[in-house]
Amino acid sequence: MSNLQNTSLKAYNTFGIDVAAEHLVSIESTGELVKTLAEISQKELLILGGGSNVLFMNDIKGTVLLNKLEGISVVDENEGHVWVKAGGGVNWHEFVLHCIHQNWAGIENLSLIPGSVGAAPMQNIGAYGVETKDVFHELEAIEISTGKLKTFSNAECQFGYRESVFKQALKGQYLISSVTFKLDKKPTFKTSYGAITTELENMKVTDFSIQAISKAVINIRQSKLPDPKVTGNAGSFFKNPVVPISLAESIKKEYPEASAYPVDDNSMKLAAGWLIDKAGWKGKTYGNYGVHPKQALVLVNYGGATGQNIYDLSTEILADIKSKFGVELEREVNIVR
Ligand code: FAD
Ligand code: EPU
Questions:
Q1: What is the pLDDT of residue 41?
Q2: CA–CA separation, 164 vs 162, rounded Å?
Q3: Ligand 1, atom 32: nearest CA belongs to which residue?
Q4: 178 and 77 belong to one structural domain
Q5: Are residues 177 and 106 part of one domain?
Q6: 236 lines ligand 2 (CB under 6 A)
Q7: Distance of alpha carbon 239 from alpha carbon 330, whole angstroms
Q8: Other Cβ atoms within 10 Å of 276 Cβ, number
Q9: Is residue 259 within 8 Å of 268, Cβ to Cβ?
């Protein structure tokens, strides 16, 4: 356990926003966690994993708890499946690589997503046709007010598109200490989404494997998403909006090339990146921050921008998309005030 006072969080968030935390406490065991929770003001507490889905607006009063709960173990297996438990502080991509190395299938499409295992259920991370909920068995979480351990099933997490109960009704009430995934010993390849098939062709792959799919996903991601080590960002800043079919149809009538996918009988999902791009924001730069030139859904900090700069830009984009297309975008990134 380490405890730093009045320390910069710049290295602890992928946006690279330079705010200070009054206390920054690194937690390496649940024992340390329960002890720390008993000692601090729980009203002024922020849990942090890799800091890859947060935008810091101000210095943080109170305690930032850095989740460093490590460990990967097999808790059960049968002929077809393996149940793998990972500590909440395990790096997500390292976990994916570990599973691929063991030939455990199911999360290869989620390669190269930054952050921690413990944050994966928070917004039900997803990419290339797979979401956490598809491979999730259960998680353990410590209730912050009591220090008690509770287990949550898939249904109890109330997963949705970039949503879970931990972002809604139970917001701020639990620290996710471990997650158990149900993975496949015999893979089912998910290659229909986006450019995976084309990339596999480019790679001259004829025999599919989870290793090849992971590499294809990594290649696609690296071709359009900025590397946070080089350019500050938190991935998609907004969610893809789900709108009534009538609105999607009127946009498609005017712009036949607009991306729209059916959700249910009444609604369609639009690509926020397309809307923001079409509205002319892609690549716009305001000194040291702006909209990424290759992916309009990603706001970037070129160095030295404040959380307020990025937030104000996102507010302008929200208003412009509403006025141009009648669509209300919603921020995906967690705004920390
Ligand atoms: P943090 O940013 O540290 O925290 C996020 C939120 O969860 C905060 O509210 C925090 O308080 C809370 N939290 C964190 N850990 C815990 C815990 N153990 N218990 C309780 N609460 C916790 N996301 C996708 O879904 N798909 C993508 O394809 C994707 N691509 C990305 C690409 C880039 C380049 C970047 C920078 C981000 C991308 N993201 C994507 C977003 C991000 O990687 C995920 O949201 C990730 O799960 C965040 O993990 P983290 O550990 O960094 O969370
Ligand atoms: N598009 C544009 N211009 C742009 C960006 C996108 O026209 O500047 C169009 C694309 O051509 C495509 C469509 O919009 O037709 C969708 O784009 P893309 O495939 O890049 O995916 P996305 O919808 O922008 C989502 C997730 C990503 C995830 C990818 C792959 C959300 C909010 N974002 O992006 O997740 O990696 O699909 O599955 O759902 C994240 O959550 O941080 C994230 C990066």
A1: 86
A2: 7
A3: 235
A4: yes
A5: yes
A6: yes
A7: 6
A8: 26
A9: no
Structural domain count of the chain: 3
Q: Do both 107 and 167 map to the same domain?
A: yes
- Residue 162 catalytic? yes
Distance 16 CA to ligand 2 centre (A): 22
Residue 247 domain-assigned (yes or no): yes
Beta carbon of 273 within 6 Å of any ligand 2 atom: yes
> Ligand 1 within 6 A of 14 CB?
yes
Ligand located closest to 119 CA: 1
Distance 300 CA to ligand 1 centre (A): 16
Residues 1, 110: contact at Cβ < 8 Å? no
Identify the three-state secondary structure at position 49. coil
Same domain assignment for residues 241 and 325: yes
pTM, 2 dp: 0.98
318: CATH:
3.90.78.10
- pLDDT bin (cut points 50, 70, 90) of residue 104 is very high
Same-domain pairing of 18 and 102 = no
Final residue before a domain boundary, out of 165, 184, 203: 184
Structural domain boundaries, residue 328 = 232-336
The catalytic position among 162, 164, 199, 314 is 162
Residues 63-92, mean pLDDT to the nearest whole number: 98
Rounded mean pLDDT, 290-316: 98
| Residue 331 Cα to ligand 1 middle (Å) | 13
Q: 332 an active-site residue?
A: yes
Catalytic status, residue 236: yes
- Residue 200 domain-assigned? no
Give the integer Cα–Cα distance in Å for 123 and 247.
Answer: 26
